[in-house]
């Protein structure tokens, strides 16, 4: 039940509605109350009981909720239905149209002070901004959504917290993304708030930054917890996202058949739910899987399918990331010129604050292509840029390999001391991946 307005506000509302309907105070009061009571109520000098307000609402021909709060009857229900419609629009990949719907809903929720609906609309606007690659706006929207919920139980705030963490991850702030995920997981598990949906959302989300930071053991453990939680979760979209994320840890462990099966489950759920962007991401991940397994033609086909689906929906950041993966496959298939053209296009869309890890991947691959063409100066420039991006992001998972490439290049050009420095840097990242940037592991769920 929504909180009632104060006596003065309700009094003015009663007087306005009575006057509009041409009723006297006596007509409004009968038969249960007196004209003097109505006069006192309209003056705001008495807090009417619920039975009295229900009697007056019936005489005025309005719903009790509208009289007590000023909100049209069933407004909250109507807003929630329209929020679901906006969510469906976003699922089809129409992020800009969905953002317009969410903005209208936010304005209505603000007007009537509907806090839960305000938070949900801001959450949707954050998801729209993620889709279009506007990471700064996404962070602002998710933070505002969390603020609206105030002191609400932590599980209710988890979707906004997860959104914040993902937007920081995509911006290349891997350490902070992990901190947000881990601190929230720790609080949920230590305080006994074991909400399966909230936990699955967080364990699924933390896998990608763990992998990029080289914390493979933690990623595998998060995947294990996610798989154990999945049977308790009723939201098929959340389960599908879990299958897609878990596949990445399976690929890293060489469990290709299991990863493929996990991606097939995710893709089938997304087809049923008609969530187009996430289905495109399944093609993307499948392309990555096939590339890792040496099936380059199948990898190219899957990545091109993802590219077409994402670019059609103007998901610019995700399209650029897919293009980096596609360029790698093209290079390995002997199409280095086409790969280089694609990578230079991509670098115009990526930056240290927007897709830093994939931006580093583009520079790394351009360095390899330049080396193949015996342009060592250009190759070194690209390797150094990639190294700077990865160090800034804390992406230890790729740093060791990049240091090896740079060290080999420096050694071949006669700079042995510089090569040794590069190798030592790489070994430092390889020795204990992730442990220098992550604190103690969060408390575990009671599975």
From TrEMBL:
Family matches, as CDD domains: HTH_XRE (cd00093)
Residue stretches in coiled coil: 256-316
Record region (Disordered): 427-447
Keywords: Coiled coil, DNA-binding
Any matching Pfam family: HTH_31
Domain of life: Bacteria
Domain HTH cro/C1-type: 14-67
Compositionally biased tracts (Low complexity): 431-441
The protein, known as: Helix-turn-helix domain-containing protein
């Amino acid at each position: 039940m929504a909180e009632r307005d104060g006596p003065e506000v309700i009094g003015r509302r009663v007087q306005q509605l009575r006057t509009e309907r041409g009723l006297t105070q006596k007509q409004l009061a009968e038969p249960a109350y007196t004209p003097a009571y109505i006069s006192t109520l309209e003056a705001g000098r008495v807090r009417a009981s619920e039975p009295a307000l229900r009697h007056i609402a019936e005489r005025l021909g309005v719903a009790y909720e509208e009289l007590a709060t000023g909100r049209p009857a069933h407004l909250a229900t109507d807003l929630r239905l329209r929020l679901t419609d906006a969510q469906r629009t976003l699922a089809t990949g129409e992020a800009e149209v969905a953002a317009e719907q969410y903005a209208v809903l936010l304005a209505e929720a603000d007007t009537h002070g509907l806090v839960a609906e305000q938070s949900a609309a801001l959450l949707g606007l954050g998801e729209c901004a993620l889709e279009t690659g506007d990471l700064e706006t996404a962070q602002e929207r998710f933070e505002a959504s969390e603020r609206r919920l105030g002191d609400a139980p932590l599980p209710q705030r988890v979707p906004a917290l997860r959104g914040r963490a993902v937007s920081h991850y995509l911006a290349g702030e891997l350490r902070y993304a992990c901190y947000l995920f881990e601190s929230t997981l720790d609080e949920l598990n230590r305080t006994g708030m074991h909400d399966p949906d909230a936990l699955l959302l967080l364990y699924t989300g933390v896998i990608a930054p763990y992998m990029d930071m080289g914390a493979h053991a933690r990623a595998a453990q998060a995947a294990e917890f996610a798989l154990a939680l999945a049977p308790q979760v009723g939201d098929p979209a959340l389960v599908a996202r879990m299958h897609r994320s878990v596949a990445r840890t399976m690929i890293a462990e060489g469990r290709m058949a299991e990863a493929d099966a996990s991606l097939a489950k995710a893709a089938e759920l997304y087809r049923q739910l008609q969530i187009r962007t996430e289905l495109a991401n399944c093609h993307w991940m499948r392309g990555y899987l096939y590339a890792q397994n040496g099936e380059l033609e199948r990898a190219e086909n899957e990545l091109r399918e993802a590219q077409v689906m994402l670019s059609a929906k103007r998901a610019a950041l995700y399209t650029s990331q897919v293009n980096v993966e596609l360029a790698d496959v093209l290079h390995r298939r002997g199409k280095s010129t086409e790969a280089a053209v694609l990578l230079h296009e991509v670098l115009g869309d990526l930056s240290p604050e927007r897709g830093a890890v994939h931006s580093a991947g583009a520079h790394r691959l351009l360095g390899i292509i330049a080396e193949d063409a015996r342009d060592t100066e250009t190759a070194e420039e690209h390797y150094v840029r990639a190294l700077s991006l990865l160090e800034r992001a804390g992406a230890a998972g790729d740093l060791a390999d990049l240091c090896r490439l740079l060290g080999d290049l420096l050694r071949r050009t006669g700079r042995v001391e510089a090569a040794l420095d590069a190798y030592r840097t790489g070994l430092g990242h390889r020795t204990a991946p992730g442990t220098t940037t992550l604190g103690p592991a969060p408390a575990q769920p009671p599975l």
